[in-house]
Amino acid sequence: MRNGAPPTEHPAEGLSRRVGEDAKRQLLATPPKLLIENPVYGNILSRLRSNFKFCYLVQWLYLLRRLIHMKDSFDVEDIEEEITGIADPPMFLNTFKTKLIQYLVNYKMRSARDEFPEQVDRILGDKEEEEEGGIGYDSLDLEGKIDILYQLVKKANDKSPDHFRKIVSTYEESDNEENMRLTPVFQVVDENFREEYFMLKDARLYYRKWEFQPMEVPKRRRDYFAEIKEPAYLYFEDFEPVLVEWKCLTTGIYEFDAYVQDMKAAGGRKKRSSSYRLAGRLDKCYDQVIDHDLRKRRQALQRKKEVKMQYLLAHRKRSSRLLEKEQQKKEEEDKQREEDERLQAEAADRRAERRIRMKEQQYSLASASSRSRSRSMSPGSLAKARAERELKRRKIQSEIANPTRQEEKWQFDCTCGIKQENYDDGTKMIGCDQCSRWQHYNCQPDQVKHSIDNDPNYKFVCSYCRTNESQAGKVGEVHLTTAGEADMKKEEGANLRVEQTQLSAAPQRVVTAVVGQVPEQVAAPSMPVSLQIGQQGTVIAPVEPKQSIAYQIAPDAPHIFTHERQVGPAEPVKPVQPVIPVISGTEVTPENHQPPLVTFPPRTTFIAYNPYQPQTPHDKL
């Protein structure tokens, strides 16, 4: 690149008018710089190209490589790339060594790298040097290895003169005889020196300088006769010219065009100057240099495309592997999803089994309680109780036979804050075996989840029930006993006496309900109440701030209703839909229940207490 062109400019744009426009367009479509033109390799390439023996090897490979039956295509850039290490392994050099040794000693090497030094010692080695331990081929520098190859080529030329003449005659028959001659493009003769410029087969411009021995003519006849009496070989011993300098001036069209322009500028208008005449002779070599340079740059572009294609193919294979991994991952996810669905189905079956066992246990407890009550009841009451038990038994058997009917309405109340009836978000859930409240499986502690997964007989208790149990142990137990069956028979309603036995009790307020009316207030302001009154005067008071309370109506018609209300100042109880009693009694439905009129036994007493205030000992009320 000349004239201070910017680095980003393509060197083809700086060519002179001697290069045609068509050639410029073709050069612009090729890479601006080859790998071999990298300045890193400048030193070693300069030594190679200025070595006359290396140049001889290159021209011999261009013209006479068929002498050793070598048919591979050749270009000077190929061998230079292998010598500099750009092309590794050196395929062409190994083939050249193998063919050369095979032609000289009729032996085909299996490994040129391992066997070539041994064969070189066999052909060129001296027995005395071998015994003294001379330097091997691998220990030589670059110039030494080039000299070994140069000597082997010389021996190949002399091995079979007939075969050599046959190869050379092919150029005579094809009118390419000029290719075998080393004819200078331009030469300058000055007394004892001669300077020559050559354009060889590699399209590179070379310079050679010879030095001749000066001819001394005796001035006196006596001296002349004295010299001719000496042997002729002594006279012609130093007569051969001496090669003073050999160097490569240009490689490629860009260096060649720049050199020609410099010669033109140095010659100026002096047409007889050597620089001007040299530039004129070199004008005829432009086509050869352009053709060679275009060919090697197109080859470099093709190699670049092949490397890119190989990269794309490798990337495509990698993409195929990634796609295969994604497909495999998707299949694993599908299998995991199917496994989760199976586990959820099994968990649902276990929940149904727990509900069935719970109903069976409740039925057993109810039967035992009925048998204990039947011992103290009259024959009429006993018959009525049997009918009620039969009705209850049929009801439970119907629910056991149709478990899906029970699942029509159920309460979801999880610790994560979601509280809704019949709530189902598709995640795994678990039901409490005490209150039938459902919660998320993932919201449970790790210990509970481990027990659910590994223990098929594990009975899950929700966080609310666990809290109630712990607080109930602190508050104590509340018992309500009756005055006896005699008093119940004598009076219209049950005379209930409340007996409260607790370790500690909060300040209390007693409210007496009036028959046929709903109590206007059951507790002090902001004081939560949760009472359940069962048959035979049993009072259960779970310590839980839930707005639910059950009332016993009368001994002869024991119905149990559940009412939900928010406790507050002067706020009445609001009855809601009744539920089926689990102990005994007649089934109550929305059709036969007329809220809010609820009948209470005479002198029924409700005890309100605050489980969250400090407790104090208290006796019977």
The rounded distance between the terminal residues' Cα atoms is: 116 Å
Describe the main β-sheet briefly: 4 strands, antiparallel
Beta-strand fraction estimate: 5-15%
Oligomer: single chain
Structural class: alpha+beta
Approximate helicity band: 40-55%
Shape designation: rod-shaped
Q: What's the gyration radius in Å?
A: 58 Å
Region (Disordered): 1-21, 320-402
InterPro entries: Zinc_finger_PHD-type_CS, Znf_FYVE_PHD, Znf_PHD, Znf_RING/FYVE/PHD
Domain Zinc finger PHD-type: 413-466
Protein name: DEKNAAC103673
Protein architecture, described:
The chain has 621 residues and is an alpha+beta fold. Among the domains are: 39-179, no CATH class; 475-608, no CATH class. Helices cover 46% and strands 12% of the residues. It is built from 19 helices and 16 strands. The strands form seven sheets. It has a four-stranded antiparallel sheet. A two-stranded antiparallel sheet has the order 5-6. Helix 5 packs parallel to helix 6, helix 5 (91-105) packs across helix 8 (142-159) and helix 14 (286-374) packs antiparallel against helix 15. Mean pLDDT is 71; it is low at 475-621. Residues 10-21, 321-352 have a biased composition (Basic and acidic residues). Residues 413-466 form the Zinc finger PHD-type domain.
